[in-house]
């Protein structure tokens, strides 16, 4: 009888230990999940705080840009040469997005939409808004068009995708390339091709501030002695001369 009771006790003790281990495992999993979520939120808040500080300070600086004339696709699937068809002779504002982004891309899209509304009389003319995908493998022209439709994009705002090698070349040249699409920066590259003046602004700034930066670049002139940024097409022409 004592042997049976002892066996029962052992079984109960084993079951208790097993339950304890399962409970501890669940607690550990929940703690790790919460820590990971907290770290991700802290990282996102840190990025947003830094961007807000830069936007509040109106942080932007003149930069040298060489615009490649790579072949790309717009949101209708039309083949274009980026510099020749979208940039040459114009004032442009370029941001970098991907359609499955749920953090900084939607507010950047909303900002561009508001900028286009504020500058309606210019957006279809000498000012062009351009959104370039940092995930061209996923972002087909159809997906880019649908993303733009969420913000009621009008003519004058072009959504650019294309083959991975050419888009990566474009992103690297414009300073929009990152090793991971989630790490891309909310920067807006603003340029006046006619004068060669280029600057970077914060894509999370208010639409009014961003429009002011675009208008400022559009009105600037460059000293004749200053070096003019050269696009890849011009460099090829010089090479063959």
Write structural notes for this entry.
With 241 residues, the chain is α/β, with parallel strands linked by helices. The protein has two domains: 1-57; 61-240, Glutaredoxin, CATH 3.40.30.10. The protein has eight helices and eight strands; from the N terminus they run αβββαβααβαβαββαα. The chain has helices at 2-56, 82-87, 105-118, 120-123, 141-150, 164-174, 207-219, 232-240; strands at residues 61-62, 71-73, 79-81, 91-97, 127-133, 157-160, 187-192, 197-202. The protein has a six-stranded mixed sheet, with helices on both faces. It has a two-stranded antiparallel sheet with strand order 2-3. Strand 2 and strand 3 (79-81) form a beta hairpin. Residues 1-5, 35-59, 223-230 and 232-241 have low confidence and may be disordered.
Strand content: 15-25%
The helix-and-strand class reads alpha/beta
Tell me, rounded to a whole number, the average pLDDT: 77
Shape: globular
The count of β-strands is: 8
Distance between the termini: 105 Å
CATH class of the largest domain: Alpha Beta
Helices and strands, in order, run as: HEEEHEHHEHEHEEHH
The major pleated sheet works out as: 6 strands, mixed
CATH superfamily of the largest domain: Glutaredoxin
In total, the number of domains comes to 2
Query: According to CATH, what is the topology of the largest domain?
Result: Glutaredoxin
How many helices in DSSP terms?
8
